[in-house]
Design goal:
about 625 residues; 6-stranded mixed β-sheet
Length: about 625
């Protein structure tokens, strides 16, 4: 018999009480995060420990369980979803991050735990950057943060825990990457010498895939695979089940100048321990190189294996290369987004026709998402989706990361707003697009909110800014029009986008939340531009384009700083019927008309033939210039 949520909590508390702590037994609190051992945003079913214990399925959240409480911290994207999914609902308390009066996790622990309490957490699943401040705060209050190398959720889950996913690893060709793995390795070693590091540890899965020019499918929607890489000045170590590499993948590494030493995946901790204890990464000829480069967003467990060796915990050179796309990657991304835009135009043209003709059976959130995927499958180089399609009607649109299910699926009609956030993986790029439509008559408030969201997106799209400024500084541009009338949204405005990698590629971002590792905006970085507004229980609005950073032309160049701008690569019309034109400036109208003319120019050649007649007619209609 499957355990209920209440049964899971009861059994987990028994396991917590049985943990040996010195001569005593029992921990007073357990922290359960959302990450896997690589601290991934998206994870396999086997690693969904927080979901297993709480019922909440969102990608971000941290649970804290004590003898009397079960709490979950998450951000504004997931408030409504979490409260709807808690199991059992009366046992869990939602802690709304980003709202006034919500304590941080350490504040709550310090205020609510008995004196000299022990808090347990799996050090394999928590970053060094999170562990150390939490440990210091708890220690200062007289508590103890205990590393639990036996994960209690895994112990509770037992035989019902899903199996490991170990799919084949395949090559990503040079015509898509624009740079060999050997060239990337050379750049890494150059950065290592500059920073006096004799070893570089790569743990983030998209960094591993990018560095090796390989791709996998271990995590749904993310073309990555479970592996670690450790680079020294003379050797290149890969920790992976080597049998997973296809012959083509292994040969490509050799052809691209990588002489790899392979180790079992699970040996990375023992290898790091031996490497640092013996100072094996010191080549002998470069005695000043005695540091190991391991990012602070690597697990606390791996950091502890580095012993007392000096550590360099900055963002890795691999991530910096990955964020700034080379010329080949830029051209490939542009091609992928153009084809993807054509698929979306075909979908929205088809959908509007079905809704207005009141077809029977009606198109629903799920059947609509399925049809959109079919149109994408027709496109060259299509691999799969980059995340589950957020196809949401009316109140569902206010659930920012809503996923339709058979229980919640409803028809798409002309009575409510429809929000569709979707993306795809192509060999030559990763896409992410959101559009909001009303196929009937929107309310005045809906039109105003939509217009103010569009004004925010336009402010970002047309911004000029100094080279290397962090995206955090641009965030307010997207919010000003909403803030002017007391409206707001509780998510970031933009995230980095991978090149046939993860759809969310940090640390480059445009957000109210600061990202300390953000290297600053530079030509070649791709980001989303996606302001929104959400009226709980009623509707959601979001507009999202992907854009990349280019050099800007300005009348002045103060102190030779160099200024930058954005070029948009998404070409899907904005629904003008939802706009209140009286709220737009002349410049915003000119921007929209120019953007729509570009959409028509770029997509018309892709929408020729009788089979595309409906899409082309719709595109021509939706890109008509607007005037006051």
């Amino acid at each position: 018999m499957a355990r209920t949520g209440a049964m899971k909590l009861a059994r987990l508390r028994e396991l917590m009480a049985a943990v040996q702590v010195g001569k005593e037994k029992g921990i007073q609190a357990l922290i359960v995060g959302s990450e896997d051992a690589h601290l991934s945003e998206y994870i396999t079913d086997r690693d969904k420990r927080r979901h297993y214990i709480s019922g909440f399925q969102g990608s971000l959240g941290t649970a804290i369980i004590t003898a009397e409480h079960a709490l979950l911290w998450t951000d504004g994207r997931y408030y409504a979803q979490a409260e709807a999914e808690f199991d059992p609902p009366d046992a869990w308390t939602l802690m709304k991050e980003g709202t006034i009066g919500t304590p941080t996790q350490e504040e709550w622990l310090i205020s609510n735990l008995p004196p000299k309490s022990t808090v347990g957490a799996d050090p394999n699943l928590m970053s060094y950057a999170v562990w150390i401040p939490l440990q210091n705060a708890l220690n200062a209050a007289g508590h103890y943060l205990m590393p639990l190398y036996e994960n209690l959720i895994d112990k509770l889950w037992g035989d019902e825990q899903p199996p490991e996913v170990l799919n084949p690893i395949v090559p990503q060709l040079i015509k898509y990457t624009g740079k060999t793995a050997g060239e990337k390795l050379t750049q890494c070693r150059k950065a290592m010498r500059k920073n006096r590091a004799g070893a570089l540890v790569i743990t983030t899965l998209d960094e591993v895939a990018y560095l090796l020019n390989l791709r996998g499918s271990d995590i749904p929607y993310n073309p990555v695979f479970f592996a670690y890489v450790v680079i020294t000045l003379t050797e290149f170590h890969i920790f992976v089940n080597k049998s997973r590499l296809t012959a083509e993948a292994e040969q490509q590494l050799i052809d691209e100048g990588v002489d790899a030493i392979y180790h079992p995946y699970e040996d990375v901790r023992s290898f790091l321990k031996q490497l640092t204890l013996s100072n094996l990464f010191n080549s002998g000829n470069e005695k000043e190189i005695e540091r190991i480069w391991i990012h602070s967003n690597t697990s606390y467990a791996l950091h502890t294996e580095c012993n007392d060796i000096q550590r360099h915990i900055s963002i890795t050179p691999v991530r910096l290369m990955q964020v700034i796309k080379n010329d080949v990657e830029i051209e490939n991304m542009k091609k992928a987004h153009t084809r993807d835009s054509a698929a979306l135009v075909k979908y929205f043209a088809w959908l509007e026709d079905k809704v207005k003709s009141k077809c029977n059976p009606p198109i629903t959130e799920i059947s609509g998402a399925d049809q959109l995927e079919k149109f994408r499958r027709e496109q060259e180089n299509f691999i799969g989706l980059s995340f589950p399609t957020i196809s949401s009607v009316g109140p569902h649109g206010a659930i920012i990361h809503y996923l339709p299910s058979p229980k919640t699926d409803v028809p798409i009609t002309d009575q409510e707003i429809y929000l569709c956030d979707s993306g795809a993986q192509y060999y030559d790029g990763t896409t992410d697009v959101t559009r909001t439509f009303h196929f009937g008559t929107p309310t005045n408030f809906q039109r105003e909110a939509f217009t103010r969201v569009f004004k925010g997106q336009t402010a970002i799209a047309t911004a000029k800014f100094p080279t290397l400024i962090k995206g955090n500084y641009l965030d307010v541009l997207a919010r000003k029009s909403l803030w002017d009338v007391g409206l707001h949204y509780l998510h970031g405005t933009g995230h980095g986008v991978g090149n046939y990698l993860n759809v969310h590629e940090f640390p480059t971002a445009i957000s109210w939340r600061p990202y300390p590792d953000d290297p600053g905006l530079q030509p070649g970085a791709f980001l989303s531009n996606e302001p929104g507004f959400y009226e709980d229980g009623s509707f959601g609005i979001r507009l999202e384009n992907i854009q990349f950073v280019v050099k800007a032309e300005t009348p002045y160049n103060h102190r030779d700083i160099g200024f930058l701008a954005f070029e948009t690569v998404t070409f899907v019309p904005i629904q003008t019927a939802l706009l209140d034109i009286n709220l737009l400036t002349d410049q915003e109208i000119e921007y929209l008309n120019t953007y729509h003319a570009k959409c028509l120019e770029v997509l018309r050649p892709l929408l020729q033939g009788e089979e595309n007649a409906q899409a082309l007619k719709w595109l021509e209609k939706e890109t008509q210039p607007i005037t006051r």
